[in-house]
Each structure stands twice: as C-alpha cells, then as structure tokens.
Amino acid sequence: MSTSPVLVIRHGAVAYDRPVLRDVNLTVTSGEVVAVLGANGSGKSTMIRAALGLVPLAEGEVELFGTPLRRFRERRRIGYVPQRLGAGGGVPATVGEVVGSGRLARRGFPGRRTAEDRQAVAGALAAVGLTDRANDPVASLSGGQQQRTLIARALAGQPDLLVLDEPTAGVDAASQEAFADALRDFVARGGTVLLVAHELGPLQPVITRAVVVHDGVIAHDGPVPHPSGHHAEPGHDHVHPHAPQDPPSIWGRE
Ligand SMILES: Nc1ncnc2c1ncn2[C@@H]1O[C@H](COP(=O)(O)OP(=O)(O)OP(=O)(O)O)[C@@H](O)[C@H]1O
C-alpha cells in the first residue's frame, strides 16, 4: 500500500483581522484517519480550510497529493463537508439529487448520468443509511440526516481525501456508528480522512492519529489523547463556560 503524503502544510500561518494560526506543520499520509481536536475558536476549521485553499495562507505552503496548492487542479480527488451547512436551506432538492450533485465534478461536459454515477450515489446513500430517503426533500430531514446527506454527497464523488468539519455534531449515536462504518469502508478502499471533531465517540476506534490545535498552534500530534476529569463523562457536551478553577483542557470547548 502506498504511503505517500496526501496533504502537507509547512509553516502555515493564517490571519484574519488578527493572527489565527501560526507555524502549523502537518503531514497527512495515505490511509490515515486524522482527527483535528481542540477548543472552540482554536483554529481547527481555519486549518482545514487553509489546507484546501479556501482561506489564504499569510505564510507557509500547502501541497496536495504532492502538488503545490496553487498548481493543484484535481479538485475531484477531494471531498469536503463544511461545518453546519444546512443542506435544506429552502432548496427544493431531494436527498438523491443532492447526493447526485457530488458526481458533477466527475462528469465530462455535457455530462450524462452514467450507470457508474447511479451506482456511486446508491453506494453513498447506503453508506450513510439514507437509501430509503432518496426521494424525500432534503428540507424534510432532521439536521443530523441533512449532515449525512452532505457526507453522502462527498462520498459519491469517490474522492481520495475526505475532509469533514464536525461531521457528527448533532448526529445521534446510531448514525455516528453508521458513519464510523462508512469511514472504515472508505479507508479500506484506499481513502484518507481529515476531520474536525469535538467528541470522537464511536469514531474513536477509526481514528489513527489526533492533532490538537490550541490557540492557533499544534499542541499535540500523535495518539488520541484521553479526556480526563469531568470531560470524560458521557454526554459532556463541552459547551458550558468553565469556572476559573477548572484545569486547562486541550480536549474540549473552553
Ligand atoms: N472569516 C473569518 N473572519 C474573521 N475571523 C474569523 C473568521 N473565521 C474564523 N475566525 C476567527 O478565527 C478563530 C478560529 O476560528 P475557527 O473557526 O478556525 O476555530 P475552530 O477551532 O474551528 O472553532 P469551533 O470549534 O468553534 O468551530 C476564531 O477566533 C474565529 O472567531
């Protein structure tokens, strides 16, 4: 199996109105499932968006599949599911249509739908457990199901790298298990995954490496750190404001 770098960030820095990321160095290799963890506002989303060229780097460089970002043209090799994007949004599309749109980059112009397209869409719907909802309007689905629709759209494109920003936020436990299985299957077929998460939950066994972002720098890169104290309690959702005496945590929301 090839272990070539899929994504490299070297000395990456991003600033909006103020610096948000500094000297980020990250290499994701083929077959890895890397979780980006860290507190609210630490820079996790910014890091993956910069890696995809959605946010400009103030310093440093990015390579995707061995090609510098500015010369990278094989967008279809990447499936990206952004954070909290309501797939419904008043668009009267069905689940099947939204997932089918994930095939567009793969089609030539004028782009007829092929048997392969149909198969990929069916496989992606099955992977996220939404086969029986294919003909329903996306707007009629729950938030978690809409999130799964977007994951299926990314899977339908049969990317080599799947980048997901909080894919399981607001998704129930059974769906998280189904998503973990879908990821396993994706990696078994040669895929690589980079995902942002607050809680790993059922995803934990699938994760091969964790990167913790703290205050705009990578504070840990290695095995998944174990949550400690009350952060480890089931159901702890990390959204409460911490009392000043709380120990600092690199795990949850502060
Ligand atoms: N487009 C933007 N313009 C200005 N500031 C931004 C922008 N996007 C993010 N920020 C700021 O950059 C910092 C990092 O944000 P980012 O979304 O990367 O954090 P995060 O770790 O993903 O947080 P969360 O867990 O809440 O999603 C935050 O202070 C945020 O307010």
TrEMBL record:
Annotated Gene3D superfamilies: P-loop containing nucleotide triphosphate hydrolases
Region (Disordered) location: 218-254
Gene Ontology molecular-function annotations: ATP binding; ATP hydrolysis activity
Bilayer-spanning residue ranges: none
Keyword terms of this UniProt record: ATP-binding, Nucleotide-binding, Transport
InterPro entries the record matches: AAA+_ATPase (IPR003593), ABC_transporter-like_ATP-bd (IPR003439), Metal_Ion_Import_ABC (IPR050153), P-loop_NTPase (IPR027417)
DNA-binding found in the keyword field: no
Comp. bias regions, Basic and acidic residues: 230-240
Domain ABC transporter: 1-240
Domain of life from the UniProt record: Bacteria
Family assignment from sequence similarity: Belongs to the ABC transporter superfamily.
Protein's name according to its UniProt entry: ABC transporter
Organism: Catellatospora bangladeshensis
